[in-house]
Amino acid sequence: MSVATKLRPAARSTPPVSRDDIHERVYRAISEHRLLPGTKLPEEKLAELFDVSRTQVRAALQRLAVEQLVTLVPNRGAFVATPTAEEARDVLAVRRTLEPSVVQRLIAHIRAGRAGDAVDRLRTLVLQERQANVDGDRPRAVRLSGEFHVLLAELTGSSLLARMMRELTPLTCLAILTFDAPVQSACPNDDHMLLVEAIEAGDTARAVALMDEHLHHIETALRLDRNQVREVDLADVLLG
């Protein structure tokens, strides 16, 4: 997919950033639905924006490509990945397999006394997400929504589950950005709090059912017969 991108120089008032910082800026912009599928990421422009060498930019883009967030096209450069309909279905299928087991494991972890603050941490994050929605801060609300799912995995005590969810979250964002209606919210406002309440009650069956329903809602909200073409300003997205 081709996306027209306005590029403009931005004033730098901070020290040069590292390749990890560049990776994090792009990852976060995708997770907040601000950096769109198909957007070109020119090495020279990113080097100018971040006041770093093209070598540092290239290393960050290569890492993002390994994570399937960026596509590297020979003789054309780097682009934010644009998932196909089948790839979008695959991401959601993996999540439907993975996340019910996450809530099962978390409830068992809490019962065993190994995650005493889990419910409080989850509720705090959900309340922050709710406030972001009230404030009309969609990028923050979207990011916090993704962080909720990552936190569920982290609280199980499994570094593998946590890493998988950190990788799946921005891939889901790309699927939503490619196939979702522009104003549609993929996560209903109350879904996360209902999950927290089921986890707090130790109701494994309800928590699993809620997670399955939640992920089903995300998939059915996608319009897999079409995609979105919109314009972004890299300076605003990555430095704003």
Molecular shape: globular
Predict the CATH topology of the largest domain. Answer: Four Helix Bundle (Hemerythrin (Met), subunit A)
Distance between the termini: 25 Å
- Briefly note the structural class of the backbone: mainly alpha
Q: Quote the beta fraction.
A: 5-15%
Helix content: 55-70%
Oligomer: single chain
Mean pLDDT: 88
The main sheet comes to: 2 strands, parallel
Unreliable stretches: 1-7
Could you state the order of secondary-structure elements as H and E? Answer: EHHHEEHHHHHHEH
Q: How many runs of DSSP E, i.e. beta strands?
A: 4
Number of H- or I-type helical stretches: 10
Measured on Cα atoms, how large is the radius of gyration? 19 Å
The CATH architecture of the largest domain can be given as Up-down Bundle
CATH superfamily of the largest domain: GntR ligand-binding domain-like
CATH level 1 class label of the largest domain: Mainly Alpha
Pfam family, one: FCD
InterPro entries: GntR_C, TF_FadR/GntR_C, Tscrpt_reg_HTH_GntR, WH-like_DNA-bd_sf, WH_DNA-bd_sf
Keywords: DNA-binding, Transcription, Transcription regulation
GO molecular function: DNA binding; DNA-binding transcription factor activity
Please give a handful of descriptors for the protein shown:
Arc Repressor Mutant, subunit A; 63% helix; 4 strands; 10 helices; disordered N terminus; Four Helix Bundle (Hemerythrin (Met), subunit A); 2 domains; two-stranded parallel ribbon; 240 residues; single chain; two-stranded antiparallel ribbon; mainly alpha
